[in-house]
Amino acid sequence: MAETALSTVTACPLDCPDACSLEVQVEGGHIAKIDGTRTNPYTAGFICSKVRHFADHMDCDERLLEPARRVGPKGKAEFETIGWDEALDLVAAELKSARDRFGGESILPLSYGGSNGWLTQDTTDARLWRRLGASHLLRNVCAVPTGVASQGLYGKMVGTDLADYVHCDLIVIWGTNPSATGIHFVPVVQAALKRGAKLVVVDPIRTPLAKKADLHLAPHPGTDLPLALAVVSWLFENGRADLEFLEQHTTGSDELRRRAGVWTLERAAEVTGIDAAAIEAFARLYADASPAGLRCGWGLERNRNGTSAVAAVLSLPAVAGKFGVRGGGYTMSNSRAWTPDIEPAVNQPVADDAVRRVNMNVVGRVLTTPQDPPVQCLFVYNCNPLATLPEQQRVRAGLEREDLFTVVFEQVLTDTARYADVLLPATTFLEHRELGASYGATPLTDGPAVIAPRGSARNNYEVFEELCRRCGLERADDPNGAEELVEALQKGLLDPTQARTLRRDGLLSSFRGEAPIPFVDHFPPTPDGKVHLFPEELEEASSVGIYGYLEDPATAEYPLALISPATSRTISSTFGQLVRRQVPVQIHPDDASKRGIATGDRVRVFNALGEVICEASIDVNLVRGTLCLPKGLWSHNTLNGASSNSLVPDDLTDLGDGACFNDARVEIEPAS
Ligand SMILES: Nc1nc2c(c(=O)[nH]1)N[C@H]1C(S)=C(S)[C@@H](COP(=O)(O)OP(=O)(O)OC[C@H]3O[C@@H](n4cnc5c(=O)[nH]c(N)nc54)[C@H](O)[C@@H]3O)O[C@H]1N2
Ligand SMILES: Nc1nc2c(c(=O)[nH]1)N[C@H]1C(S)=C(S)[C@@H](COP(=O)(O)OP(=O)(O)OC[C@H]3O[C@@H](n4cnc5c(=O)[nH]c(N)nc54)[C@H](O)[C@@H]3O)O[C@H]1N2
Ligand SMILES: [Mo]
């Protein structure tokens, strides 16, 4: 008799704005099919190819199935399998010993983007770290500049619903490539274009949507600040600022106008490399259109001017008066649609201000330079630092330290995992219960496990619960396990009817009926309910003040900008084990011909920090003076095992101490 496939609805918690609802068919212990549901309107029955083929990730050769202990030199991935009891006892003993000998701060938990789920990060793990007094990780590798800017101006207001862009007469897509990084926005844009909407894309790369745009502005990386301020200034000087909106709903517009005033179209043109006429054409289009929606992404935050640039971009809908109509306004991160009160819910002690903060952007430096106390125990989970953090050589040197005890809790044998002293195998989201919300689409999702864990893999919340016990730090009233954690997180957030709906449908919308319209249905959650166009706290915190421009770091020796955006093949470095081919560096034909480089050539991209040897690919879609080597590469993707992060300095952004991935300045030459 043929076995019948069992179909379950679950949700994707990966680091992506779309938060898809999935229908998964399991047959004979294997995944037979994964597709998007139609009941989640934003998923709309389709998903990305990465998650459609998630079984390849779950069952790949690199999948970690049993705990293991290092038996060879660091980095050589020579391990022997041990049981969970032994592994957890060993890890607990090392945690306690580091704490007792050097103090809790000698323990550094390192986690980031493996999962957007609410159960697998910041629950029992954070409880363990806080009770141990471990160093507190500042998760600043992504979304901090955008977060600081949108908090400063709008109190992180939930923006225009992404589906509402279908109503726009003008869509501006600034520093994001939804064709790779949030694919469900693409049909929305296409539907608007079909209705006659205009499209402007601001991106140094001619992305798939830039090819469809009425206007593509290709700034030199890191110059969005002068571009946006020139538009702000044009709006004021040409009587196109909405003075009534500014008066009623904002503070600080005079100061913003003053700061923007130094950026004439000509001066902005010089710095950005965009024609003054094109900047003016954009300003005019924007002033004329309604509804005008502005989708701001993360590409523009990853440089020295990141926070001020995002602030200037987000000021545009306020200055031009684009709010108050369906589809008008802006969308940055919508993560504030749901805010569970996690700390009390899961019995985490409140973060102690006296505990050492470690910014993850400088982890390489922290591991390799004298610190008080030194980091003795590094616990990596939901993260692949060797692939994703700046200053790759320093991170590697840190992982090579003989006196460092490194735990890597992972699904697959990543480049980082190869350096572990103890490896712990983690479940994937199809193998454990998850609950979560994303930062683009706003529903809350409940994702049950759909299949048994592979090997003896365990989920994060159970492993950290167990470590807490083995460190003697548990409390009788700690909520533990999926059911108790879900209940604790929902308390005070959902009423019983909502909780039932979420459980039943796997999905709970953040609103009833039509999506709320900013400045009609809700206002900025700032103390005075207004937009702060000149946030004083940001002015004080920046060395050049908010809206102050920091010059390009290029030198005669290293004149080219290297950017490393996302691709459709991986999510950061997740799924990189499945991308076996060599990944080329993209270069503009003019930059290539000057250096005698052709497609397929072996090249050396280098600066004072390091070098990447890889293939070259000539690409007309790149702005001149800029190279592109995507983020998230594994050592097998280039000829010398290094990625863009070996060329990325651990400099921090103007405000918020974010990462400056796109501030790498390099030279390129044919390699022998
Ligand atoms: N398939 C896939 N989806 C993903 C991810 C992934 O890796 N793969 N990553 C997820 C994560 S972690 C995040 S944070 C989001 C990020 O999603 P996005 O916001 O799309 O961010 P990036 O991929 O960093 O860059 C987006 C665009 O910014 C451009 N850019 C680079 N520098 C500049 C600049 O100085 N100014 C301007 N205007 N543009 C610039 C790049 O050319 C690129 O086209 O996507 C999420 N979704
Ligand atoms: N050069 C350059 N580097 C970048 C960027 C860039 O633009 N340029 N962008 C940055 C951005 S936007 C981000 S968000 C960061 C992301 O950086 P990371 O946080 O390192 O993200 P990933 O590379 O996706 O690695 C996540 C790892 O977590 C594992 N994982 C997933 N789920 C679980 C789980 O439930 N339990 C456990 N224990 N492990 C799990 C996955 O297998 C994966 O190896 O990278 C940054 N790095
Ligand atoms: Mo990110």
Folded structure, characterized:
The chain is α/β, with parallel strands linked by helices and 672 residues long. The protein has 4 domains: 6-58, Single Sheet (N-terminal domain of TfIIb); 68-139 and 339-493, 3-Layer(aba) Sandwich (Rossmann fold); 145-332 and 532-541, 3-Layer(aba) Sandwich (Dimethylsulfoxide Reductase, domain 2), CATH 3.40.228.10; 560-670, Barwin-like endoglucanases. 29% of the residues lie in helices and 17% in strands. The strands form 7 sheets. Strands 5-4-17-16-15-6 form a 6-stranded mixed sheet, covered by helices on one side. α3 crosses α19 and α9 packs antiparallel against α12. The chain is globular. The model has no long low-confidence stretch (mean pLDDT 97).
The low-confidence parts are none
Shape, per Cα inertia axes: globular
CATH fold-type name of the largest domain: Rossmann fold
- Report the mean per-residue pLDDT as an integer: 97
Q: Bound compounds, please?
A: ligand MGD, molybdenum atom
DSSP helix fraction: 25-40%
Number of domains: 4
| CATH architecture identity of the largest domain | 3-Layer(aba) Sandwich
> What strand line-up does the widest sheet have?
5-4-17-16-15-6
Beta-strand percentage range:
15-25%
Question: What is the name of the CATH class of the largest domain?
Answer: Alpha Beta
Quickly count the helices: 23
Q: Major beta sheet, specifics?
A: 6 strands, mixed
Q: Which structural class best describes the helix and strand composition?
A: alpha/beta
> Span from first to last CA?
61 Å
Rg (C-alpha, Å): 25 Å
Question: Count the strands?
Answer: 27
